[in-house]
Amino acid sequence: MARRGFKKYMDKRSPATFKIQITSMVDMFVILLVFLLKSYSTSPVQLSPGKDMTLPASTSTKDPTDVLKLQVSKNAIFVEDKKVMDLKDGVVDVKDIDQNDTQFLRTLYTELDGQANKSRTIASKNEEMEFDGKVIMQADRALPYELLKKVMYTSMMAGYSDVKIAVLSKD
Fold this sequence. Notes:
Elements: H1 2-12, H2 23-39, E1 57-58, E2 68-72, E3 76-79, E4 82-88, E5 91-92, H3 106-125, E6 134-139, H4 145-157, E7 162-165, E8 168-169
Parallel strand pairs: 1-8, 2-6, 6-7
Antiparallel strand pairs: 2-3, 3-4, 4-5
Helix pairs in contact: 3-4
């Protein structure tokens, strides 16, 4: 008996007036999709210059590869985000320059040589990796060429002979 009453109730009830409005939800997903596509980077390497560093501009379209990162700012030199040397307005302190070779920066060489030895050790144990002596240098555009020349010379002495300079795209 109770069943028949329920069935009558189900037949007499009004059709549902609640309809799902998915237009705004679709709009939201389209906006999210566009945002994610615009912020997606195809480059495997993320280079972020320091707050006091202005990179030079270029029309180059080649993406950087994942190699040792070297930053040269007006105040310091960093290897893989580790502060190696202090600078004073882009000038190297006399104690950091080798007496026999004025282009050679001993402190920077010690750190780069340690990184090269670590990479060679990993490469000897891992067949898929090899030490290729590549480094990407982020340098402030206002630094004197003499300093950059010393940094590149020292990195070549440590085994990093392939030096690429990071730039900002003019786009």
